[in-house]
Amino acid sequence: MEFIVAIELGSSKMTGVAGKKNLDGSISILAVVKEDSSSFIRKGVIYNIDKTAQCISSIVKRLTTQLKTSISHVYVGVGGQSICSIKNVIVKNLPPDAIVTQEMVNELMDANRNMSYQEQEILDAATQEYKVDNQYQIEPVGIQCTRLEGNFLNILWRKEFYRKLNKCFDMAGVAIAEMYLAPLALADSVLTDAEKRSGCALVDLGADTTTVSVYYKNILRHLAVIPLGSNNITKDIASLQMEESQAEEMKLKYASALTENSDIDNSLMLNIDGDRAVESRKFIEIVEGRVEEIIENVWFQVPADYADRLLGGIILTGGGANLKNIETAFRNRTHVEKIRIARFVQQSISSKDQLITAQNAMMNTVLGILAKGDINCAGQEIDPNADLFTQHPSPITQHPTPQPREPRKANEIEPGVVITEAEKQQAEEERRRKEEEEEAQRQREIEENERRQRELEEAERKKRKENSGFKKVWKKFSKFLGDAITEE
Questions:
Q1: Which residue, of 277, 312, 341, is where some domain finishes?
Q2: Which domain holds residue 475?
Q3: With b meaning 16 or more CB within 10 Å and e meaning fewer, what string describes 415-428?
């Protein structure tokens, strides 16, 4: 069995997806897992290493349970406030009558890559263009000049973030196949070539952060992460003296990015709970005030050189893009007429999981990371009679060892034996019946494991109150789970 595994470390949810790439380029989703991460990842920054490692381990184990195959390594998407972009210019003076060579261009690129930044390092570098004397060129090789200037957009991340991220995966016992910049993987999956070429701004409206990526002539021109997201709207609503869970429910039920004044009913009261309510106008003002702030910050991040070149428009995605009238609010504030919501990736995806089929823009990033993966992440098959949580994953291998062919099943036909049509039909029906029974059994096992996982998570939370030592809690958690599976 071959599949790719992608994990996105979001500020509200950590998501793991396993999918198989088909020969026609489509992707079949095999497993999807989501867990809350709001208590240990904030604005894309890891604050609690132990809890993050525990969550990564849980994600991988739950995927392993569904796949019935160990996971050798995973692809990881990084984003949030740990990344930023900085422009850099490298100049090379040439002798008279010199012709630009590829070696000269490589020297500029190497000089840029060797730039040092305090507490940060270059994760990726996007070449903007080259200035040959006084003219800008995308491909300068072969042009005669005396001055060659390289313009680069360096994408940086904090060294501390890299250290923490690796430590979390090491503690979880999960190997990283490759790290991808989440905003770039997202852009490759939701933007069209025409939008990138003609100029566009991709706005990923997340829970704690909003990421702005500006493209022009197929080149990333600017990348910025704003520390504002849809959770800020929830917290503002909660200021009306209610729990954040109630505020989130009200946001999903009543909130609109823009409401015409003529449509506001001053006498309308919105119920908070059985005993309390809030004025509709006051609720609208709170929501619109925060949305307006987010949009103004997004538009401020679009460089002035490209603000008038967004012929591809503004593309909205992420959970915040589901807010009612968000397109109209962006259109009114930015005066960009072409606004599109990217609710799903462009790749052909097949799945029965509701998180995928909902196509609500919340899974786009992790699916974009999955699409970029190209190395098989499958390890060894799991023995169904063994303890799924004590088996160790196989080491990283790009080419898994071929498995011996399984012995012929009882209802399979020995080669060379002639049988009648009736016998063929009977054998086929028997095979189909067994496959249906096996599939039903697998589904029951998955549901049982998920139920047991929820019970264990609840038990762990209770245990944590009695004993704050992480190792003691994890030891009890592992023993409890082992006993439960053994009893089964």
A1: 341
A2: 456-488
A3: eeeeeeeeeeeeee
